[in-house]
Design brief:
The structure holds three protein chains of three kinds. By secondary structure, chain B is α/β, with parallel strands linked by helices. Chain B has five helices and eight strands, in the order βββαββαααβαββ. In chain B, the strands form two sheets. In chain B, strands 5-6-7-3-8 form a five-stranded parallel sheet, with helices on both faces. A three-stranded antiparallel sheet of chain B has the order 2-1-4, covered by helices on one side. In chain B, helix 4 runs parallel beside helix 5. By secondary structure, chain C is mainly alpha-helical. Helices cover about 85% and strands about 0% of the residues of chain C. The chains are: A mainly alpha, B alpha/beta, C mainly alpha.
């Protein structure tokens, strides 16, 4: 009972997540509803950007989750390599498509936001470009998982790909920065002082509160989806194992 | 020198196929493994040779002392017979390929590109590689596939010479090699029982 | 190790395919680009370093799946894994052989193809240097991708999908170095970054490649 590794037992994982799932899902729905409704209808228009700024309540949380999902996959891959808990590897597998979708949402909302602001749907700006590269990493990772039939082999190979990919993703980020200094505004949400109001570009408090609520909602949504998809992966794997067992008899 | 395999459990595709395998081969002796197709002979040999990890159990000898030959011979078609063997000789750091060529009567073919050989000749070349490795433990999977009777005798002679030189051999084969001194072991009794469900990772296996 | 290198080089020469194919592909890319963007020579000279880098990269990609696939099919890879060479060494030698048969010919051919694209005179030196430093990284990274996909039946397309994102930093710094030199800007940072990436992948990536190869062999 004392160790967190208890939850690496698939049965225990399923039982625990089943108990948590309704709460997490409920929280995700409430937080996202509050954050988005508050953001869309109860904040003033930005004095420069007008109402287009409101896409920020989807854009920023999605972008945040796109990166955090990869970070989570990195951690679970490491856990798989070091401790060889199957649930960990399956959680990484389950998270990848969510991360890919978040990346697409961030890119799409960015394009929709960029069109009126910068006058173009797409600009080879470092941030946009790195997200596009991140999307390619997700695609490769997902494709490798689905190409390999043997579960443990797939888990081993994808986790090493995830480690190597992480290094190259960071490297690409710097390379792209060097290659083109872009249009995108600096990350104004979590920058030091952003909430204190001492910078010009800060996201002011009026916008910040619903934004943080929306971000929390996205995190909860992500957790709920990962729980659900990991359960699916565990059951699919169990089914394959049972079929294999059947063949042995 | 003795090859001792104790309580070895080997897996294929993540599932145990043979469990609790115990066997011992001492220097100068050969052990022939028998068993129906798909029982896991190849998996067992690959595990002993260190190509895949064992689930449980130990192998007493270091992998550096073993030479493995599998279903495929690793022959490069564009290279000649002599070049193929010379490559392996230099990888294993042994000098001459003459003895290996002679043992499998490959001298007349030495300058031929390996791609033009018949299946049996290719197999002989693959087996000659074992001589070239200079390693004391031969781990061989179905060594006699596509060999004619003369070539099987050649192979038996080569194994005998290897054993006489203090080596040992572990073979999986279905046919009689004419190696009367070799012990035969059936791996059937080691067939793994279907796993129990209530392990730690029980929901999987 | 030298025996393995010599064998791979000999195989590449005897079986053809090796340099010939990569170079021919590079030439075709260079010839096709003007058809696509128009014969305007000032435009071509502007994009020449990028095209040459991209062409070299794609030509490199073309032959990646041969690094391990042939040895996998005929069983040599199993036998090599039981040989006294550590897998890390085997992987490094394979990458070196790939570079010698694919990367190096591309580096040598690049200035010739540069003529076709009106590469400005100031660009030849930096382009060749950047390719010379950058293409080994392409081979080493590609070897990692090839090791990942070696057991797969239709690994070729997947290999490209996995490897191309990993090529981004090398491509950026490599092409940037040639471009900056032509525009008369300082290219030192790009050169250092490019060299840093190449040396880092040569030093570290073989361990990852050997690890995935070990997984694929079992």
């Amino acid at each position: 009972m004392s160790s967190i590794w208890e939850y690496a037992n698939p049965k225990k994982f399923i039982a625990t997540t089943n108990r948590l799932l309704p709460w997490v899902t409920g929280l995700a729905v409430v937080l996202m509803a509050v954050g988005l409704v508050w953001g869309f209808f109860f904040t003033p228009d930005d004095f420069r950007q007008g109402s287009t700024v409101k896409i920020i309540y989807i854009h920023v949380p999605a972008a945040m989750m796109a990166i955090n999902t990869w970070a989570m996959m990195l951690v679970t891959s490491l856990v798989w390599i070091v401790r060889r808990h199957h649930v960990s590897a399956l959680a990484a597998r389950a998270a990848a498509p969510i991360g890919a979708v978040m990346t697409v949402i961030a890119l799409a909302t960015g394009a929709i936001w960029g069109q009126p602001m910068w006058g173009t749907w797409w600009e080879w700006d470092p941030r946009l470009t790195s997200f596009l590269i991140l999307f390619l990493f997700y695609l490769g990772y997902i494709a490798l998982w689905s190409a390999i039939e043997e579960d443990d082999t797939a888990a081993d190979l994808t986790s090493i790909l995830c480690l190597v990919g992480s290094v190259f993703a960071i490297l690409s980020r710097y390379a792209v920065n060097f290659w083109n200094q872009g249009l995108h505004q600096g990350s104004s949400v979590l920058r030091a002082g952003a909430l204190m109001g001492d910078t010009e570009e800060r996201v002011s408090n009026v916008f910040a509160t619903p934004l943080f609520i929306s971000m929390a909602g996205f995190v909860m949504l992500f957790i709920a989806l990962v729980f659900l998809r990991t359960q699916t992966e565990i059951r699919a794997r169990r089914m394959r194992a049972l079929l294999a067992r059947e063949r042995m008899q | 020198m003795e090859l001792q395999v104790s309580d070895l459990t080997v897996t294929r595709g993540g599932i145990a196929v043979l469990e609790g395998v115990n066997l011992a081969v001492s220097a100068g002796a050969a052990l022939v493994l028998r068993g129906p197709n798909g029982i896991g002979k190849t998996t067992l040999l690959r595990t002993i040779a260190g190509l895949q990890p064992a689930l449980l159990g130990t192998v007493s000898l270091d992998r550096e002392q073993m030479a493995y030959s599998g279903h495929a011979d690793g022959i490069k078609a564009p290279l000649t017979v002599a070049e193929n063997l010379t490559f392996w000789a230099s990888v294993f750091g042994t000098g001459s390929i003459d003895a290996a060529l002679a043992a499998f009567q490959l001298d007349p073919l030495a300058a031929r590109p390996a791609g033009g050989l018949s299946a049996g000749q290719k197999r002989r070349l693959g087996l000659a590689r074992m001589v070239v490795t200079g390693r004391p433990v031969w781990v061989m999977d179905e060594p006699t596939v596509s060999l004619d009777t003369d070539a099987v005798a050649m192979f038996a002679e080569a194994v005998r010479a290897h054993l006489a030189g203090g080596g040992l051999a572990l073979l999986a084969t279905h046919i009689d090699l004419g190696l009367s001194e070799a012990r035969v072991m059936d791996v059937g009794p080691f067939k793994a029982k279907p796993p129990t469900i209530d392990d730690f990772d029980g929901a999987f296996l | 190790m030298i025996a393995l290198l010599l064998r791979d080089l000999r195989l590449a020469i005897r079986a053809g395919g090796g340099f010939g194919l990569g170079l021919a592909f590079f030439l075709i890319v260079v010839v096709l680009v003007p058809f696509g963007v128009g014969p305007n020579s000032s435009l071509l000279s502007k994009i020449a370093p990028g095209i040459l880098w991209l062409g070299a990269l794609l030509a490199c990609l073309l032959s990646l799946d041969r690094i391990f696939a042939l040895d996998w099919e005929d069983g040599s890879l199993d036998l090599l894994a039981t040989a006294p060479l550590p897998l890390e060494a085997i992987v490094s030698v394979k990458a070196l052989a790939h570079w010698l048969t694919t990367g190096l010919p591309l580096v040598i051919a690049a200035p010739v193809f540069g003529v076709l694209l009106n590469l400005p005179a100031a660009g030849y030196g930096p382009l060749v240097i950047s390719l010379l430093i950058g293409t080994p990284a392409l081979s080493v990274i590609g070897t990692f991708g090839a090791a990942l996909t070696v057991g797969l039946k239709r690994g070729g397309l997947l290999l490209s999908l996995l490897v191309l994102p990993l090529y981004v930093p090398t491509l950026i710094f490599g092409a940037e170095m040639a471009r900056r030199s032509i525009e008369g800007l300082t290219a030192q940072t790009s050169l250092l970054m490019l060299a840093g990436i190449t040396f880092a992948v040569i030093a570290l990536l073989p361990f990852a490649s050997a690890a995935v190869l070990r997984v694929n062999l079992r």
